[in-house]
């Protein structure tokens, strides 16, 4: 095969090769057309329409009323909004850090030869193969005061009479976050494992000969090698976390009060329960600004690693 | 593997472990390692175990520990029967399957061409398109969902599975292209050139040479699309109105507050919703691992 390609490469190219049908730009845009069409109609157009809608008062039925920047002025001076914004940021970024650390821990454990290794890897990937809705119902039961095994264990061990978990404004956000971490740490585990496989073994041998400790090798060889992978995963996971809806909506609906409320759930309720689509869109536009600012700064800082060649 | 250092005893022959032979020390370390690893795995999997336990016989933790045999002798499938006959679960399952299969097939077809274009062809503007794809990941889904609801209402797509499939294709597309792109970048150059010099068009070359080569990568992308579509909540919640046209996630979400005490039924449903994902996962696990590795660690 390769010799064949070689001989073809050395041969003179026929004139047809330079025809416009052979131009990479023609085929490039042609192949992109379906993707751009779908994204344009179902992503970009609604996005701009949503931004436009944010300048109106609209309940979905009566004619929209132009209100200009009123919604934005209202949002920015509104304490409840800032509480929800803080929850959203804590939810997204704290969770990603915890996931990454747990994922790294398991990757280190699994990154050696032992019997049962592939079984262990498969079992640790299992949370990823369970739908969010099942996780939400499952963890709601785990946290149940009477029936839940978590409190059951605490009572049996004589540690406490049981914690209120998702029923308390103090623990609710953290409790749901735990379920989100449980589902997503396998992502980090797998990418870190793959990254570790790519590190040449010679480096560790050389470091050992030079008298470095295991910890030094980890700090100066393993971590730097994993950094590019970690950067991409962290960006994607934090954006996905900001967007995540199911677990909070099903486990707490943002309650008690607004203690575990995050922006997507709040926007949904404002738009579809209270019929305030204009205000809801304005909050969503603020959320878009936050995500774009974060994402673009991140991309600028780590252009190389994310692969924006 | 790579982080393993030689056994401690090499460095300190007369050290702490001098009372034990090398073999015993190795054995002790292995036992300790396995004890830690498997108890951690047990902890991680406990929620899944509990889901299964409650689905066949609803119980709290203390009674189960006190009398596991009593629990086992009363186990039955009434939770599964209830979920199938007493709720709209069969409708939701069917709708989820239709929407996920439809969205996965369409999305794979569209994203394969797009990923090939961005990953392989050289032309002005492709970097901009790649960046644009990443930027779409920064759009809040709920910001898209509100106007999409209005658009679909105007075009008769509201409350239809067709509309949901269209929404899911757009929703899964950017990440799918991004993943597959890495694979095409790493293919050796001039694979299609041979076919093209033999008289194929670029499209013919892609179909005959590139597609067969990239089957595993496409399978991985399909799995990711499948998982995304199977899990999607917001669009289904907003774009579907009737319970009988709803998919599993919002449908089962309705149980909260209505079925407060029937945990056996809810856990049976949770397991039922897991099976289609688990089947895909078990059969295609090696592709998932490989795909994540290649997608994330591309050079």
TrEMBL record, chain A:
Transmembrane region positions? 26-48, 89-110, 122-142, 162-182, 221-240, 246-267, 279-299
Q: Which Pfam families match?
A: BPD_transp_1
What topology does it adopt in the membrane? Answer: Multi-pass membrane protein
Task: Choose one Gene Ontology CC annotation of this protein and give it.
Answer: plasma membrane
State where the protein is found.
Cell membrane
Q: Which InterPro entries match?
A: ABC_transporter_permease, MetI-like, MetI-like_sf
Instruction: Enumerate the Gene3D superfamilies for this protein.
Output: MetI-like
KW Membrane (keyword) present: yes
Q: Chief localization class? A: membrane
Report the record's Gene Ontology biological process terms: transmembrane transport
Q: Which family does it belong to?
A: Belongs to the binding-protein-dependent transport system permease family.
Name of the protein = Sugar ABC transporter permease
Automatic annotation (TrEMBL), chain B:
* Transmembrane segment boundaries: 31-53, 97-116, 128-152, 164-184, 205-228, 265-284
GO cellular component terms, semicolon-separated = plasma membrane
GO aspect biological process, one term:
transmembrane transport
Enumerate the spans annotated as ABC transmembrane type-1 domain: 93-284
Which protein are we looking at? Carbohydrate ABC transporter permease
- Show the CDD domains listed in the entry: TM_PBP2
Protein's membrane topology: Multi-pass membrane protein
Query: What subcellular locations does the record give?
Result: Cell membrane
Mind telling me which Pfam families this protein's record contains? Answer: BPD_transp_1 (PF00528)
Record keywords: Cell membrane, Membrane, Transmembrane, Transmembrane helix, Transport
Report the family membership: Belongs to the binding-protein-dependent transport system permease family.
């Amino acid at each position: 095969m390769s010799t064949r390609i070689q001989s073809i490469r050395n041969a003179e190219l026929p004139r047809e090769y330079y025809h416009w049908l052979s131009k990479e730009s023609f085929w490039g845009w042609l192949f992109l057309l379906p993707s751009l069409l779908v994204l344009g109609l179902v992503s970009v157009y609604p996005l701009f329409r949503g931004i436009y809608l944010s300048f109106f008062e609209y309940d979905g039925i009566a004619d929209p009323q132009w209100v200009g920047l009123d919604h934005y002025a209202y949002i920015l001076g509104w304490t409840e909004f800032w509480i929800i914004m803080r929850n959203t940021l804590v939810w997204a970024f704290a969770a990603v850090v915890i996931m990454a650390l747990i994922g790294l821990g398991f990757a280190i454990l699994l990154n050696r030869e032992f019997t049962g290794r592939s079984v262990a890897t498969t079992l640790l990937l299992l949370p990823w193969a369970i739908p969010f809705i099942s996780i939400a119902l499952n963890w709601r039961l785990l946290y149940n005061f009477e029936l839940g095994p978590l409190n059951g264990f605490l009572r049996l061990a004589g540690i406490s009479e049981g914690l209120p978990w998702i029923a308390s404004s103090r623990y609710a956000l953290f409790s749901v976050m735990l379920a989100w971490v449980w589902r997503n740490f396998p992502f980090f585990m797998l990418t870190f494992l793959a990254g570790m496989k790519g590190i040449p073994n010679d480096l560790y041998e050389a470091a050992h000969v030079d008298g470095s400790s295991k910890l030094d090798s980890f700090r100066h060889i393993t971590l730097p090698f994993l950094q590019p992978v970690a950067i991409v995963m962290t960006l994607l996971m934090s954006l996905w976390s900001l967007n995540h809806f199911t677990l909070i909506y099903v486990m707490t609906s943002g309650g008690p009060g607004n203690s575990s409320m995050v922006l997507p759930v709040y926007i949904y309720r404002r738009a579809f329960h209270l019929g305030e689509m204009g205000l809801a869109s304005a909050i969503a536009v603020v959320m878009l600004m936050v995500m774009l600012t974060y994402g673009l700064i991140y991309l600028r800082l780590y252009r190389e690693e994310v692969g924006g060649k | 593997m790579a982080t393993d250092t030689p056994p401690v005893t090499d460095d300190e022959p007369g050290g702490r472990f001098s009372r034990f032979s090398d073999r015993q020390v190795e054995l002790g370390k292995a036992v300790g390692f396995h004890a830690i690893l498997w108890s951690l795995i047990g902890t991680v999997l406990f929620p899944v175990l509990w889901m299964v336990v409650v689905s066949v016989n609803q119980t709290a933790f203390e009674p189960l520990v006190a009398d596991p045999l009593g629990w086992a002798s009363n186990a039955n499938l009434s939770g599964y029967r209830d979920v199938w006959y007493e709720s709209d679960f069969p409708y939701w399952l069917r709708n989820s399957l239709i929407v996920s299969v439809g969205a996965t097939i369409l999305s794979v077809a569209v994203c394969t061409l797009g990923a090939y274009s961005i990953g392989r062809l050289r032309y002005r503007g492709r970097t901009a398109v790649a960046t644009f794809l990443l930027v779409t990941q920064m759009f809040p889904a709920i910001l898209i969902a509100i106007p999409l609801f209005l658009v679909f209402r105007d075009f008769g797509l509201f409350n239809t599975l067709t509309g949901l499939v269209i929404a899911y294709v757009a929703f899964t597309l950017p990440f799918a292209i991004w993943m597959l792109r890495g694979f095409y970048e790493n293919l050796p150059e001039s694979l299609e050139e041979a076919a093209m010099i033999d008289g194929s068009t670029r499209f013919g070359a892609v179909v005959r040479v590139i597609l067969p080569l990239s089957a595993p990568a496409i399978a991985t992308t399909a799995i990711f699309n499948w998982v995304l579509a199977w899990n999607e909540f917001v669009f289904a919640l907003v774009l579907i109105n009737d319970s009988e046209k709803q998919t599993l996630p919002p449908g089962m979400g309705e149980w909260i507050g209505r079925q407060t005490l029937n945990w056996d039924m809810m856990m049976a449903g949770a397991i039922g919703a897991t099976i289609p994902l688990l089947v895909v996962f078990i059969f295609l696990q090696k592709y998932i691992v490989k795909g994540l590795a290649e997608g994330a660690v591309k050079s």
